[in-house]
Amino acid sequence: MKQAEVDAGDRDGLTGSEREELAQLRRENRRLREEVEILKRATAFFAKETR
Question: Which residue in 12, 18, 35, 38 has a CA-CA distance of 20 to 30 Å to 27?
């Protein structure tokens, strides 16, 4: 009931589509952080190899 009121604009809060988008952005953010960590490790590995 509360979510329907939020979606209708009768109550403050995140709408269903905003919640969905937030969840998707959090998943993407987590994936990107993992990719950055992998790239950092690869950079360190290859930096050692070239010395």
Answer: 12
